[in-house]
Amino acid sequence: MQSFTLSQWAIVVLVFVAGWLLGLASHPGGRKWRERYAAERDAHAQARRDADARVAALETQHREALAQREQIAHEDARLAQSDRITIAPGRPATAAPVRVDHAPGERRGWFEFGPRRV
Question: Is the sign of the CA dihedral 82, 83, 84, 89 positive or negative?
Answer without folding.
Answer: positive
